[in-house]
Give the backbone structure.
Amino acid sequence: EEACIIGAAHLGWRGAQAGLVKSVLATMQQLGAELSKIKAAIGPAIAQDSYEVGPEFHKMFLTDNKLNDKHFIAIPNRQKFLFDLTGYIETNLNDIGISQIDKINVDTFTSTDLFFSSRQAKHTGEKDFGRNLSVITISK
């Protein structure tokens, strides 16, 4: 018998770094979910090509774990990096034991016809931006 439990989290880098992936999965397990049966989906989210960060951001993630360097691409001659948020979350899921992961590879920063993006709004100088809503259901 399936537990029919859904966990959902809207994660930016702060939530991901703070361990919300682990927290959501722990809560799901407390409610009766079996870790080996959990399937995960990631995204849509800002893509690495759109996610420019400074050296202090990079250093913060390396301080947590030197292996986090694999989620960064250095931008030559700029002392900046491109961060792979969805890759970081996927690694967190794998480390906990989740191997069934679907990634929805849609960049919310560049897909302005489909999504609102706080980062994109700041980049273009907009004073405000729309809101997104997601719904997850279980069909029996």
